[in-house]
Design a protein that fits this description.
The protein is mostly beta strands. About 10% of the residues lie in helices and about 35% in strands. It has one helix and five strands; from the N terminus they run βββββα. The protein has one helix at about 65-75, and strands at about 5-10, 15-20, 35-40, 45-50, 55-60. Strands 1-2-3-4-5 form a five-stranded antiparallel sheet, with no helix packed on it. A hairpin with a 4-residue loop joins strand 3 (about 35-40) and strand 4 (about 45-50). The longest helix has 8 residues, at about 65-75. The protein is globular, with a radius of gyration of 17 Å. The N and C termini lie far apart (about 65 Å).
Amino acid sequence: MNRTFKVPCPNCGGSATRSYFTSQESRYNTCPQNQVIHLECSDCDYLMVMCSVSGSVVEAYDSGTSIFTRQDKNTTKIPLSA
C-alpha cells in the first residue's frame, strides 16, 4: 500500500513530500520487496530514496542549498559600538 505525507524538508525546511511504497518499480531492486521511502522537496530540489527495510540510501540528490548556508548568507553582522 502506498502512502504520502507532507513533512518539513530536512534540507531547507520547506514543504516536502514523503511517500512510502511497498512495491516500487524494479529500478530499486536492491531493497528487499522493493519497499522504499521517497522524500522529495520542490522548493530546494532535494531528493532521497531509502530502503525502508535496511535504511540504506538507494538514490539521493541535493542542489547544495542548505538552510544552514542560507542562514549564514542572510545574516547581517552589525559591529558593536564601544
